[in-house]
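ok so I'm stuck.
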Amino acid sequence: MSETLISFEPATGEELWRGPISNVDAEVEIARRAWPEWAAKPVTFRTETLRRFVDRVKAEGEAFADLIARETGKPLWEARTEVESVCNKVDISVKAYGERTPNRRIEGAMGLRNAVRHKPHGALAVLGPYNFPAHLPNGHIVPALIAGNSILFKPSEKTPAVGAKLVELLHSAGVPQEVLRLIVGGPETGKALAGHPGIDGLLFTGSARTGLALNRQFAGQPGKMLALEMGGNNPIVVWDTADIRTATILVVQSAFLSAGQRCSNARRLIVRDSLADALIEEVCSLTNRLIVDHPHAEPAPYMGPVIDNEAADALTESFLILMSNGGKVIRHMTRPLAGRPFLTPGIIDVTAMPERPDVELFGPLLQVIRVDSFEAAIAEANNTAFGLSASLIGGTPQLYDQFWANARAGVINWNRPTNGASSAAPFGGIGLSGNHRPSAFYAADYCAYPVASTESDTMRASIGVGLRDPEGSQLVLKTYN
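replied:
not stuck anymore, here's the structure
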């Protein structure tokens, strides 16, 4: 097995970064030794350390964005927004920690106090994805550090350079090197970290397949925290609207932003049959105008390549499978540059398919389903084992209320894209999309656990029933102080 991990730029194929594979046992031991001292620091100390981290990110923001763009293939403009999200996460997490894990004291009778405080879990593993290699793991790391945990962060093997840079910036801000450890390696390294007896929990963002394996692995370990965010097969429903142009923009943004590599991207367009032809024509017209190019191209592209050739090959194969099993091609998915993972967006009508695969097709591939009633639209939206995001475009407030009440998802939007979510709100899903551990503002919930205490400055106790008389054997009702 290779002892070095190498990262390549998807847009060019050039080597970007290389580093040695980590020794998981040694790294876990370091993090476990370090966390008690970090946890003993005042929360204000940990918070100020992370505020310095924001300053470090801003100072190197353009170089950081360039690295993200090169390693993921996403346009530079989009990489810059990811850097902004990394910075914004600290203030959001500080506020969330105060609101979600507050210290509470309730005065009781006879001088008793009831207190609720929160403790960190210990050494937490963080497994990061490749689509947002800085923002998404940062959304676990920052709240976990604020809570007092030590971190073993393994970035995706497809984006280790960004992960290494994120750790470097946190260390330069004052997070002790022993408290935050970078774990470099591929899937086997990830398995070793997830299965290590020395971790106290795992915070994961990635595929449902890996998430299910982790869920099985942790099933016999109720004492360990497991937070899963596993993507979705997300529906966008377009109903009665005269504004086809705006609806088109929302559909295209939902389906093709980030080359379709957001867990909240729309995978299924569910549209009222009477609107379908007009909407699809506009969607195709706008999609034809999308620029697909390398991250630094001029004019700026709307989307770059997918992460690598393996992902591009799988998406192309999925498109062919849909087409050969009853799907009607609306717009072909193509590979414009041989040997590189650029894809043009594909659109296919799967209404007539007898069995539609319920999988997350993680790329620029949109499936269209025509329906003739709103009840059928909701049924189609829920025709999935996933449950991350869903959007209704058009309709009335009454229809949105019906949609919100019946759509099974953790993020439900109206007249907004499926991938429009605020970091100041919880972000997570149900079913195959997550295990009821939403991230973003609610990440504080799984980074610390509550401890209830009853406290008194002086000792006071009595037994008022069931004692024998000290001078005989007769039971008496007598208080013993």
